[in-house]
Batch of 3 targets.
Target 1
Amino acid sequence: EAGVTQSPTHLIKTRGQQATLRCSPISGHTSVYWYQQALGLGLQFLLWYDEGEERNRGNFPPRFSGRQFPNYSSELNVNALELEDSALYLCASSLGRRRINQPQHFGDGTRLSIL
Amino acid sequence: GNSVTQMEGPVTLSEEAFLTINCTYTATGYPSLFWYVQYPGEGLQLLLKATKADDKGSNKGFEATYRKETTSFHLEKGSVQVSDSAVYFCALSTGNQFYFGTGTSLTVIP
C-alpha cells in the first residue's frame, strides 16, 4: 500500500512569488492535514481538509490556503512568499472525521526555500 | 485547552543505555496518545499509540503507558541503538484535532 506522497521534494522560490505543494493521501483516507516545520520550531498546524471541505485552520495568515480534490488529494498554496516561509511542509492523512482518534500518517515533506 | 509538553532536548546517550523521554498532556475528554519518530530528512512515522487509560503501546523495543492519573505518556526503551538517533514527538488526539509536542532530539553514540 502506498503511503502519503508529497511533491515536489524541494522547491526554491524568491520573495513575493507563489508556491504550490501537493499531497496524495493513503488510499481510503479522506482527511488531509498540513503542517509547517520550521527549523527548531516543531510542528505548526496549518490546515485540515476532510471530504473536500476545510474543517479547521491554524494561526496562519490568509496567504496560506489550500483545497482538497474529489479524489482527496490536496494542494497547499502560499502566496506572496516571505523569507520566514522557508520550512519543511508536511502533509498527513487519516481515515477521516467520522473515525475519531485515528493516527495520522505523514509524507516525507516538501522543503520550501525562499531566497 | 489541549496541549502536550515534552522533555527538552537534545538527549545524548551511549549505545545500550536506558532511554526515557517525558511527555505530559492537558486534554478535555478522552484523548488518544501517540509517539512519532522523525529520522533525518524524512517525515514523521508513527511509533506507538494508546487509546485509553492504562493501555501500553509498544513497538521496536519502545514502550509508553497511558497514565490518566498523572496525565503522562513517557517513552522508554531499555537499550538504545545508534539507529534510534532521531527526533521523537509526543502527540494527542481529541476527535480529529492533533496536538504535537515540540520534539526531543536523541543522539546515540557508539
Target 2
Amino acid sequence: NAGVTQTPKFRVLKTGQSMTLLCAQDMNHEYMYWYRQDPGMGLRLIHYSVGEGTTAKGEVPDGYNVSRLKKQNFLLGLESAAPSQTSVYFCASRQLAANTGELFFGEGSRLTVL
Amino acid sequence: AQKVTQAQTEISVVEKEDVTLDCVYETRDTTYYLFWYKQPPSGELVFLIRRNSFDEQNEISGRYSWNFQKSTSSFNFTITASQVVDSAVYFCALSFYGQNFVFGPGTRLSVLP
C-alpha cells in the first residue's frame, strides 16, 4: 500500500531557484494538504484542497503556490526559493466522507535553501 | 481562535518509567476532534488516536492511555512502562467538522535505557 507518496525526499536549492514538490495519494481522498514543519513550531498549514481543481490558502501561504489538476495529485511550488523556506514539508490527505477523520501523511520532503 | 498548547518541549525518562504528555486546547466550537500523532526519529507521522468532543471516556491501548477532560480543555497522553522505542516527538492536534487541523508545537520524548 503506497498511501501518500512525496517526491523528492530531499532537495537543496539556491536562493531564487524554483522547484515543485509532488504529492500523490492512492486512497481516493478528496482532501489534500501541504504542511511545513519547523523546530518548535509544530506543523503549519501552507495550502490545502478540498477537491480536484480547488485550492485554498492555509496559515503560511506566502511564497508558495499549489495546483490540484488531478484528484490524486497535489503539487506545491516555490517560484523563487528563500532561505526561510528551508523546512521539512509534509503532504497529507483524508477522506471527504470521514471529514473528521485522521490525516494520512507522506514521509516528508526535506528542503534546504542556501 | 483555535489553539493547541503542549507546554512540555522536551521530556526525558528512564526506561520503564511512566510519562504523561500534556495537551491543552482552546476552541469555542462545541463539536471538535482531538488527535495524537507520533513522529519517531525516522520522521514519518503516525496516527495514534482520535477523540470527539462528545466522548469523554478515557481510552487505553496497550501501554498507551488518553485522558480527555472537557472541563480543563485537556487531552493528555500517558505511556506506561516506557520503552526506548517510544522516543519520538508527539503532536496533539485539534480539528473541526470539515475544517483544518491545528497542531501543537510537539513534545520531544527521550526514553533512556
Target 3
Amino acid sequence: DGGITQSPKYLFRKEGQNVTLSCEQNLNHDAMYWYRQDPGQGLRLIYYSQIVNDFQKGDIAEGYSVSREKKESFPLTVTSAQKNPTAFYLCASSAGLAASTGELFFGEGSRLTVL
Amino acid sequence: QKEVEQDPGPLSVPEGAIVSLNCTYSNSAFQYFMWYRQYSRKGPELLMYTYSSGNKEDGRFTAQVDKSSKYISLFIRDSQPSDSATYLCAMSDRNAGGTSYGKLTFGQGTILTVHP
C-alpha cells in the first residue's frame, strides 16, 4: 500500500534536547511538507521541499531544520531553539508541479511533548 | 487578520441533521479549494476538491465556492455519527511559476460531533 509513514507516533523530550521526526513516503511524490497543528490554529507550514536536495522555509521555520537527501525521506529536527515545541506534527506529500490540484496526502502524525 | 477564517465550533448535531461548515478568505488569488476531514489522532484526508467557483456534490457531501464573496461551504446531508471529526478548509493559489502547488493555506478547523 502506498502512503506516508511517520515515526515515532508519540515522543517525549526534555527541554534542551533536539529530536528528529521521521517521514517516509512511497508514493513517488516530488514534494514533501511538514506542518504543525495546535488546537484552534489549524495547520501551519514549517518547511517544504519540491525536489531532492532543495527545501524552503514555511511560515514558522524558526527552531526547526530539515534535510531532503532522498526523494522518499524528509526528516524534521526540532531543535532546542524552538520555544514551544509541544504539538502534533504532520508530514505530507504531493505530486508537486505534476499535480493539477496540489492535493496533499498526510501521514498519521507524530505527537511531541516536552517535559 | 488571518488569510483563511473558519469557525472552530465545536458543533454538535443530532444524527440525520444537515450540517453547514464555512470558511471565508481574503486572498483573491486562491483558485483551488479543498475540504479535509481529520479523525482524532489521525492525519487529515481529502474529502472534497473544487476548482474556482461553483458547486460539487459527492454522495451526502456538497462543496460550494463563491469567489465573489470569498466564501466556501461544505454541506453534509443526513449526518452520521461516523462524520464526527474535525473539518479543515484549505485553499491555494497558482503563481506564474507554478511553484505554489501544494502550498495550502488552512483554516483553523471545525470540530463536529454527530450524536445518535
